[in-house]
Structure formats: structure tokens, C-alpha cells
Amino acid sequence: MRRHILTLGLTFAMMAGYAQTANDYIVKTKGVETPVVTPAATADAPEVQSASQPVDFVGKNFKYYSLCEWKEGFRFMVLPEKYDLIVKTFTDAATKKEVSSLPLRYHIMVYKGHGKSDEVHECINFYDETNGKNYYYEIPSGTFEDYCYAKTGVPTLAYLGDVDTARDKLIGKTLVTRTTTYRVDTDAESDGYREVHVSTGQEVKVVKVGVGTRSFPVKIIVEDAAGNQFYQNVALSKTNSGMRDDEFSTFDNARYAFYGSFNLQDDVMAVSSNPADYIGKTLHTKFVTGMITKGDGRERTVNVPKMTTFTVDNLTPLRGSKYVTLSLTEIESRRAYFKNVTFEYNEDATDETAKKDEFFGYIFAMGEGAERETSQAARAAIRAGRVIAGMTEDEVQLAVGEPDDRQTDPNGLYRWIYDRSKGKVLVVHFGRNGLVQKYTTDTKKNTQSKAKSSNNPSWMNRPGTPLTD
């Protein structure tokens, strides 16, 4: 695992002592303890406008608020960066004196509208939930109306509305990694971290959500199947981020946009009004779905596993219907697949399964899915839709799809069952090493009766159809 150690500046080492004011917005990855103080009551989350058509997770739940649209009660956390320690941000409303951002670190500021600091300058007012004092930020020049449309916003402040919404919507959810570089905390009382390398397409569970930085205010901590925790600070609504939209597309910042680091496994993807936009694009399945493929000159329907990656070769509208046939190529095997989908979301459909298996935005997510490695011999077999000896589970799935049933022998061997026509089934036998030993054909009735008999496992070892490389 490639690791990179962040060297913190001396100034931020001094700031570590102020972490004692931390509250439950400050979260750390496993193994790094931090004190927790229950914060004051949270103001109501901003109202999210409903969309008339499907939008993605971010668009649906995280509205961007320009400074002109801020409502009294919006909550922010003071997270000064190095520059903020030189240029003071806030003025004490009682004394009219500027104060350093250092002692205000981790304080929660509540927006209280705008006004005038004197006869000339206008200001933006805040109530400090942490110490009970009032502060204001003096607008450098011009009026509030002139200033509020700028992306600059108020320095040091990370928008907590995004953090609260992300907690509600994400904790416990399954995400899929989309980049290779994440972070692990190294210190409970500072922002120290080390970078870790993670494979893309990995399913992880959200275990904690807290505050990150002003630019990327939502810290999402996830855990993989092995119990390893890592995080990413991401931007969601971009409210008060202090960054222009084009800055999020740069190489360094792309992973800090939510979809630069994660896919939400059960998210409904926003669909382009022009389906042809997807030609040449890379996408992956979010769940098991049926597709048509060809092997050995025969056309068959197979259950394609989730996280399978494709490129879109073409889209062909089906005359007289709302459906479009996608022509797809699976990345690893280069096998061709076809799937009929609709780009029109049917909100009134009563059959949830059918609705999900028809709408493009439910079935697919953009980008690569799981990483898979296949041998040259396996790739040839996959393209023909055949199973051969020595295949891995991934390779079998790519060749003949997800099994209709899985059975385990008391001796630790196991088999996958595939329904075929006229009551027949294909049985793929795996050894303890997880590789294919052989395949057999049988009737569905016989297979079911054998699965019920735990006293007669010997059928696993009877001769099967010979397999060759």
C-alpha cells in the first residue's frame, strides 16, 4: 500500500491545542481517538426543492446557496487555513476589534443576516454558538448585493448544512470507490493524515460523516470488507466553498467532488436528454441485470453481475416504442452484450423490479466497476459463452452470468446452478481453491433433490463433461 505522509506546518501544529473544543462534527478514522462534546441543537436543514425528473444524489439533496440566498439559521464551522491566520476574518461586534481566527477554530457560527458595521461599510453577521458572542465579517468593498453573488463568500467557514444532510442520507449506505487515493487520520487533535492507495470499484460502507475543510466540507469515512477505514473530504453543494466551478475539474481537485471519489450504489443517475451522449462512454452495472449476448453462434440471455464495466458502442431506438437497444462491449473480455432500456423514468410504475431493470439511470452508473483479471484462454471462452477448467468465479460470471442458485457440499466444495431450457440446468463445480473443476448438465428436479440430501454428497465427484483449456 503506497503511503504518503503529510507534513504539517508549524502554525497548524500550534493550532492542535484548540482541538479541545471539538464536537461531534470532528470525526476520525478507526484507531485515532478524539474527544466528543454534544453540540447545540441543530437548526432545521434547508428545504430541498423537488425535481420534476430524476436527478442524481447530489443534485437532489444538496442545493447550492449563493450568499444572496443564505437564510438566518444557516450554520457554519470556522476552519481557518494558513492564509486566514494572517488576514483576520471576524470582528467582535461588542468591542469592534478584529479577532484572530486561531481561537475561533471549530466554533460554530450561525448566520444572522447582514447590515452595516459603520456608516460606510456593510457586514455579514454571525452568532457564535460555541462562546455565545456576536461577530461580523466586514465586506471589503461595495454593498452586500454587489458582493453576495461572488463565489468568494465568507472566508474560513465550512457549510454544516451539507454535513447534516450527508449524515442523514449516507451513513450506513454502500458506496463504490472511484479513485485510488484516500486518507487515514494520524492524529486526534490536528488535521494530520497519510494517504493510502485503494483499488477502484471497491464496495465500502459509510461509517461516519463529519466536517472536512472549507472547500471540501464533508468528510466521509468509509470501511471496506476487511475492516480498513479511510476517508475523503468532498464538496457537495459547494455552498461557500470559495472555489469556482471550473476549479473542481482540475486534476488535483477532481477527486474532491463527490463523484470523483464515490458512486452511491443505489443512486438514480441523472440521464441526459440526448441518449447519444453516452456513445463511447464507460459505465458499469449497479446490480445484477439480464442482457442478451452471443456465444458459439447462439444467442442467450444471461444475468450480468453488478460492477461489470462496459463501453457503449451504439444506441438503436426500437421503432414504435420508448425503448432503445444498447450495444455494449465488456471491458475485460471484449464480449458484446445488448440491453433494451428506456431513458424515460416511469414514476407511476407499480412493479419496482421492472422499473429498475428498464430505466437506464437505475441500471448503470458512469465510470469503471470492479477490477477483474482474466487469462487469455478464459477471455476466449468468455467471448464464446463457454465455461472451461480453471476459471475463477469472476470469469464464470462474465461467461454465463450470475447463477440462478448456489449450493455448497458438506466437504467444502460448491457449485453454481444455471437454468437452461426444457427443464435442464448447467452445474458448474468449483474446487476449494475457487477455480472451476468441471461442469455437468442435469435436470432441475434432480438438482433440487440432491441439494436437499445432505447424506449423499458423492454426486459432486461423479464424472462430468470433460473440460479442456
Structure explained in plain terms:
There is one protein chain. The chain has 11 helices and 26 strands. The longest helix is centred in the middle third of the chain and has 11 residues, at 160-170. Helices cover 15% and strands 30% of the residues. The protein has helices spanning 10-15, 57-61, 82-86, 144-147, 160-170, 258-261, 352-356, 360-363, 376-384, 393-400, 444-452, and strands spanning 4-5, 75-78, 90-92, 98-99, 108-116, 122-128, 134-138, 157-159, 174-177, 181-185, 193-197, 203-211, 218-223, 229-234, 262-264, 282-285, 289-295, 298-304, 309-317, 323-330, 336-342, 364-366, 405-408, 414-419, 424-430, 436-443.
Task: Give the tags.
7-stranded antiparallel beta sheet; 30% strand; disordered N terminus; 15% helix; 26 strands; alpha+beta
Unreliable stretches = 1-21, 35-53, 454-469
Strand content: 25-35%
Tally the helices. 11
Taken from the alpha-carbon principal axes, the silhouette is elongated
Distance between the termini: 34 Å
Q: What portion of residues is helical?
A: 10-25%
Tally the beta strands: 26
The strands making up the biggest β-sheet line up spatially as: 4-3-7-6-5-2-8
The averaged pLDDT comes out at: 82
Largest sheet: number of strands, sense, barrel closure: 7 strands, antiparallel
What is the C-alpha radius of gyration, as a whole number of Å? 28 Å
> SS-based structural class?
alpha+beta
